Amino acid sequence: MSVNLLLLFVIFLPFLGSFFVLLSKDGADQTFQNAFEASIFTVLVNILITLSLFSFMPLTPALDEIRYSIRFLPFMKFSFGADMLTLLFTLGCQMAVLAGILGIKGEKQNQRHVLFYTLLYLSFLNGYFFALDIMSFFIFFMLQLFPLYMLIGKCLPENKHMVSVRLFVHYFFGAMLLLAGCVFILSLKQDDILLFNIDKMHLSYRKSIMVWGGIFFALILRVPVWPFHHTLSSVCAVLKNPLVFIALLIMPLTGIYGFMRCWPLNIPFEISVLSPVFQALCVVTMLFAAFGEYANLGGGHKLLNYVFIYDLLYLLAVFLPIDTIGENIAYSVFSFLLISACLVAIEGCVLRQSAAANISVRGVLCKMPRAALCYALFVLAAAELPVSAFFGNNFVIVSKIFNYHLYMGIAVVLCMTLGSVSLFRRMYVLKDESSIYQIKEQIEDLDMMSFMVMMIFMAVLFLSLVNPLWFAVLKGI
Amino acid sequence: MLENVLYLLSECSLISGALFLILSAIFTDSSQRFCFSVSKSAVVLSALFAVLFYNKSFLEEYFVVSSGTTLIFVLSSGLTFVWLILASKWFAAHKDYSAHWFCVCALLLLLSLKMISQTTHLGILFAFIGLLFLLQYALFAISRQSEELYHTGRKYFWISMLFMLLLAAILIVLKNESWQYNALGEYLSQAPKNIRVFAVSSLVCVLLFLLGAAPFQFWRADRIAPLILPVAMYFEIVPVLALWTLFSKLNNSLFFGFSEKMQNIYLVFGFLSVVFGIIGANASRFARKIFASVSLYQAGVLLLIFSTLKTNIFPACLIYTELYLYVLLGIYVCFYAIKSGGEYANNLSAFKGLVSMRPYVGGAFVFLVIILIGLPPFALFLTEFMMLITVAKYPLVVYTALLGLVMLVPVCLKIVQTVCFLPREKSFDRPDFTTYVSLLIYFALFVLMSVKPQYILIQETILSGGM
Asked: Which among A76, A156, A168 is the nearest to B409, CB-wise?
C-alpha cells in the first residue's frame, strides 16, 4: 500500500469510525458496548497504521520525509507529511485517547456521543499533526475546536456551560489570529506555503509583526501560560469524564507542536524583545502550577497542575535557540502523554468506584490491586524515576535550560520536584492502609482489558529507555 | 420589434402570473395550492426565458442584460422558488391567511428586483424602488400578527417613503441632465460641490437603507423577527443579491469619481453595521432576530470589503453573499421543520433539547449555525478567506471582520447549547417527509459545493464579465 494512502488513512479513519460509533445501536439497558467496541477498534487500527508509518522513516529525523499533496483549487494546495516528530505526537495522542476510552468503560451513562466526538477530535488532531502547509494547518487547528466544545458541553453540568463557552471563545480568538496571519502570508504568494518556509518569506516590518504576532498568540493561547490562559483549569475542575479530560489535556500540546513546526530557531526580530518577559511569565506560571499542585488535595487538580508544569517545560524548551532539542521534546511528549493519560484513566476509575460505594477515595487503591500496580508504576514514571524514556529526554531538556539560564533551570527543577512530590502524596492518600477498615463495600478493580493495555503502555515506556527508536526499527509492522 | 417582445418573455411571465392570480382572487375561489403552483411556474418560466435570452435586452438604452445580471436573476429566482415552496407549507397550516396576495407580491417583488439589478437609468430605478417598497409594505400587511407589528410596518413604510422623497429630490435637482448612470457619473464628477454632495450622499443613504446597513436600519432585526415566517424569510434572503448588484453597479458607474470619499463612508457604515450586528445578536433571545443581526454583521463585512475599492472585488463578494444566503436558507428550512404543538418556534428557549427528540433536524440546525461562524473547509469559509486575501493590504478590514466573528461565537454557542445540551421541556412535532427530503438535497448540494468549490467559483468568470 502506498505510504501516501496510509497517511490519509490515519487522518480519515477516526473520522469514518466516528460515524459508525454514532450510528451504533445502544444495548437494551442503555449500554454503549457497540459504540465502545467500534471506537476501540478504530483507535487500535489507527495506532497500527501509525506504527507502520514508522517503518518508512529513516533513523535520522528530517522534515518532510513523507509528503502528499492534494490540489484543492487552482490556487490552493493541501500538503500533508510526516516525520519522526509528527509520528511521535500522533502516536502519543492516539494511545492517550485509547487509555481515555478504556477509562470510561465502567460509566453508567451512555457515552456514545462522547465517543463520536472523541474520534472526530482525534481525526482532526491527526490532520493537524500531518499538515505541512499553512492552510491545512489552520483548517485542522480550527476544526479541533468544535468536537472539543461538544465533548465538554456533553459532560458539563447545566449551570457550568458558560465556562465551556469562555474556553471556546478563547481558542477561537487564537484561531482567528492565525487566520489573519494566513491571510497576510497567502496574499503574498497564493500557493501552498510550507510551515517551515514561513520564515524564509520576505515580509515587510508591519506584515512581519502581524504574521508572527498572529502565529505566536494563536499558539500561545493554547498553552496554559498566565495571563493568556485561565479558562482551561476552570473547565477541568468541573469535568468528571476521564476521556474528555484527556482530550483537553492534549490541547496545550497542539500549541507546542505548532511552535515546533513553524517557529523559526531564532525568534523573529520584531517580537524578540518580548522573549525574556515571556520566559519569565512561563516560569512564574510554572511555579504557581507547582505550588497549586502541592497545596491542592483533589486528584484532578493535582494531575492538571502536573500537566501544566510539563506543558510549560516543553514551551520553554521550544523557545531555546537549539535545533537539536526537538527530537528530545517529541520523545518526552510521547512518554508524557502515555503517563498522564493512564493516570487520568485510573484516577477516573477510582473516583467512579468511590462515588458508587459512597466512600472517600482514601485507601481505595488497597482494594484495587491491578489499579494500584498501574498507578504506582505510572507515578514512578511521572516522577522522573529512571524507568522510562521520559527521564532521559527530560534530563536533556532540563540540562539545556540550565545551560541557557541558570535561575530558570533551578525554577524548572524545583517545579518538577514539587510536581512529583505532589503525585506521591496523592498516591499515599489512595493507598493509605489505615483507612481500609472503613471500606466495607465491594470495590470493582480495573478490568483486565484496561490493565493489560496499561501494562503494554508501561512496556513501551520501559523499552523506550533501552532504545528510544525501538518501534522505528521494526520494519514492516 | 418581434424580437423585443421575445426578450420581454421573462418579465411577461412574472406579470402574467401576477395578473392571473389577481383575477383568480377576484373572480374565482381557487385554492392556496393552486396559487403557489401558478407562482412557482411563473418564476421557473421567467428564469428559463432569462437564460434563453441571457444577453438580450428589450430596451438596451435603459436595461443592460449581461451574463452577470442573468446569473443574479437566476439565483434570485431560485431563492424565490424555494421561498415559495416553504411558504406554501406555512400557508397550508394557516388557512386564515390569504395566499393569493402573497403570491402576487412574490411575483411582483421578483420583477422589481430584476428591473433594479438590470436598469442603468435613475428614473427607472426610482420607479421600481418605489414598487419594491410598496410591495414590502404589502407583505407587512399580510403578516398582520399584532398591533405592534402594524405600527412597525407603518414606520417602515413612512421611512421608506422618506428615502423615496430623497431619491425624487435628486431627480428634480438633476432634471436637466441625462439620468443614465454613466452620463450622470460624469456630470457629478464635474458638478458644483453642493449638487454633488447632495446627490451622492442622498444616493448612498438610499442604497444603504436598501441594503439594511446600520444605522439606517439598526432596527432591522426587531422589524423582521416578529413577522410571519414566510415574510421574515423574504426580507432575509430574497432581495439581497439583487440589491448588492445595484450597489456594485452604482459604484462602478455613478460614484467612480469619488472613490476616496466613498472608501471612508463605506468603512464607517460597515464598521457600524458590524458593531450593531454583534450587539443585536448577543442581546437577543429570539432565533430569527439573532440571524437577522448576523445578516447585519455580514452586510457590514461586505461594506468593509467594498471600502477597499479593489478592482474585481465584486464577484468574490457576491459569491460569498450567495453562499451565506445558502446557509441561511438551510437555517430557514430548519425553522420550518421545528414546530411544537403546531407553532413555529422563535424564542430560543423553545429549542431546548431539540437534538434529543429530532436528531436530524437538530443536528442540521446546529451544523449550519457552526458553519455561519466560519467552519473550514466549507465553501462559505473558503470564499470568505479568498475575499480577505484580496483585501489583505487593509489589516483594519481583516481584523474587524475576524474579531466580529469572535464576538458572534457566544451567541452561536448559546444556540448550540440550547439545542444540544439543555434538557427538553416540550415535545416537537414530527416534520413531514418533504422536509427531510429537502434537507437531504440541501446537504448533498452543500457537500458538493464544499468538495468541489470550482463549481461555485466558476461564477467569478461570469460576474467579472460585467454587469
From this structure: A168
